[in-house]
Amino acid sequence: MACTCSHEPAPKQPNSKFRTALWIALVINLAMFFVELIGGAYAHSSALWADSLDFFGDAVNYAISLAVLGASLYWRATVALAKGIVMATFGLVVIVKVIYAYIQGIPPEALTMGAIGILALIANVVSAVVLYAFRDGDSNMRSVWLCSRNDAIGNVAVIMAAIGVFGTGSMFPDIIVAVIMAVLGLTGGYQVIKKAQEERKTEVHLSH
Length: 208
Known about the structure:
208 residues, mainly alpha, elongated, transmembrane helix, zinc transport, CDF/SLC30A, zinc ion transmembrane transporter activity
């Protein structure tokens, strides 16, 4: 996962396959945002609600990525830096939601959690597979891959949380998963920020 410094010329502009992959991921994530937003509110699930925010953030990220495909490495890295900050911010928002859910003490509805979790997992696996070929590109390309990868991991955790809630009747499996998703957002955001800063410095160095 560690980023490596490079003083090579900026990579070539992504081809139409990357653009198509971004559009597919954008549509999937925007649709799932609404599904999980409504389902999370209905099921009183912190994990689903948090995941819906993550879907929305990813949809925005993909839209921004489409807008800067033809830009220079410096500006692609600048956008990636902003996206990394957004990813980390969502992690902090999830932590706040977990604290609120704990205070309320309402256990989520397990069957709704599980059903939506499975649907979200399928959606994110499709997105991750579509974007997999571009995971080793610049920070902008890497950020979109990390978004889908983190979401797929998070959805598996949501399903496990639903099973835990169903078996125990407790809200804690839901809270634990929400915390895991928060950590994924924070660490993923850090990785993107780190690589974006390196690319910005490299581009500035090469331009002088």
